[in-house]
Amino acid sequence: MKVTQTAIADVLIIEPKVFGDARGFFFESFNQQAFDEVAGAHHQFVQDNHSRSTKGVLRGLHYQIEQPQGKLVRVARGAVFDVAVDIRKSSSTFGEWVGVELSEENHRQLWVPPGFAHGFVVLSETADFLYKTTDYYAPAHERCIAWNDPAIGIEWPLALHGIAQPVLSAKDLQGINLSKA
Question: Any catalytic annotation for residue 136?
Fold first, then answer.
């Protein structure tokens, strides 16, 4: 597998080795030993999630104030622009973000460690988004940062993909700026 560090060193792009021919393709989507080597530590995954969304749906920026979740994310069908925002107060990159396109064509995965807010917007007609988490979903501890917080300044590629306005859930519409989180 190929591992690329992003502008925030702890967030990694992981590209598996894909074996393809006229019949289709095969790749190993997860290997605990290989992941531990690239992540630099052992992270036990306790939950797998699968969401399907339509074009323009923006989910996030989510995090948990207790039971913070590390997430290993990928797209099985379609394409998304995936974002991680560093919300670790002691970090030199606090408030900074990285974004990467994940798609069924590029097979990329993004490792989003605990201590980051996470979100994505769907760029294709539909997308199946799969992710592993290092801790369980805890609704009482879930919080949301506004997807368009000007202090963070995420450059969502909406216009580039013909998205006039993202589609948000009622919960995500209530997201607050990082300065108030």
Answer: no
